[in-house]
Specification:
Helix content is about 80%, strand content about 0%. The chain has helices at about 5-15, 20-30, 30-50.
């Protein structure tokens, strides 16, 4: 899947629902560049959960 307006809307809904794990899984399914973004978000989420 390539990034598109539909993809952006999907991300917006996921963020609105504060479902970071779903966002990470969604990005991982989109290919290499999105996987890099997902890894960054995953790292940040783990850091925040550890200190919250």
């Amino acid at each position: 899947m390539t990034l598109s307006a539909k993809s952006g809307l999907q991300i917006a809904h996921i963020i609105r629902d504060k479902n970071i794990l779903l966002l990470i899984d969604t990005l991982k399914g989109w290919g290499k560049s999105a996987e890099a973004i997902a890894a960054l978000l995953e790292s940040q989420a783990k850091h925040e959960f550890r200190y919250s």
